[in-house]
Amino acid sequence: MLQEETIYPGGTPPKKEGFIRKILGTKIGGRPLTIGEAIVDIMVILLVYVLIYLVFNSCTRCTREVESAPTASFESPVDTLSTIADSVFTYIFLLRLEHPRIVMAQCIEESGNFTSLSFRNGHNCSGMKVPSRRPTLAIGTLYYHARFNSWQECLMDYAIWQSIYARGKTADEYLAYLDTVYAEKKGYSNRLRKIIETRL
Fold first, then answer.
1. How far is residue 124's CA from residue 147's CA, in Å, rounded to a whole number?
2. Alpha-carbon span 193 to 200, nearest angstrom
3. Which of 15, 68, 148, 165 is a Cys-bridge partner for 123, taking CB atoms 3.0 to 4.6 Å apart?
4. 122 vs 20, 84, 200, CA distance in Å?
5. pLDDT: is 32 or 109 the higher one?
6. pLDDT in tens, 8-53
7. Rounded mean pLDDT, 106-125
8. pLDDT in tens, 80-99
9. Is the pLDDT of residue 183 over 90?
10. Distance CA 36, CA 3 (A)
């Protein structure tokens, strides 16, 4: 079988255009882009990539700092609990959550001092439930609460909740807000205050 030959006008095939030539040849409103417009487009694309990198790097830096901390083995429950509590408290500060002592008290209360099944099996240290209207990091439910890949993701999810619903409140306003929208039992803020006074 014979191969067919493509015959180009003028006898020579057209030159392949590179990336820059394609950008310069792009038309806006029926006219080709100028070099200045093409440079601005390239700078915008580079800026977007740099911003994506910076956001990703800042989110993973918090996780790496906590994960790089030495952890105790599970053979010593007392050491493990204090290490988990210390790591959680450090991570709360790294995430720059408002009212970190209140958030830490919530973690102690909601996770049963980091021993509950919801914490051990679902990595839920803050008692979060799966939301219906906001972004979440939850991967499912466990014991009627949200389940996460790690307790760090649980705290990130708490940060999302706090930034949407509970920013800019004083400590007393925050505790009152938790009593109305977060707590399932009465006296929630009093239990948190007691934990703060005795343990934090």
1. 6
2. 10
3. 148
4. 50, 15, 25
5. 109
6. 666 666 665 555 555 555 555 556 667 777 787 777 777 767 767 7
7. 93
8. 556 899 999 999 999 999 99
9. no
10. 45
CA-nearest of 99, 100, 94, 158 to 124 is: 158
- As a whole number of angstroms, the distance between CA 7 and CA 9 comes to 7
For residue 75, pLDDT beyond 60: no
Give the amino acid at 37.
E
Q: Give the C-alpha distances (Å, rounded to integers) separating 125 from 89, 92, 112, 154.
A: 11, 12, 9, 7
User: What is the per-residue DSSP string for the chain?
Assistant: -PPPPPPPGGGSPPPPP-HHHHHHH-EETTEEPPHHHHHHHHHHHHHHHHHHHHHHHHHHHHHHHHHTS----TT-HHHHHHHHHHHHHHHHHHTT-SSHHHHHHHHHHHTTTTTSHHHHHH--SS-----SSS-----EEETTEEE-SSHHHHHHHHHHHHHHHSTT--HHHHHHHHHHHT-SSTTHHHHHHHHHHHH-
Give the position of tokens 């792009």. Answer: 26
* Residue written as token pair 């007393």: 172
What's the token pair of residue 30? 């029926």
Q: Which amino acid is at 82?
A: S
141 bridge partner residues: 146
Q: From CA 77, how far away is CA 71, in angstroms rounded?
A: 12
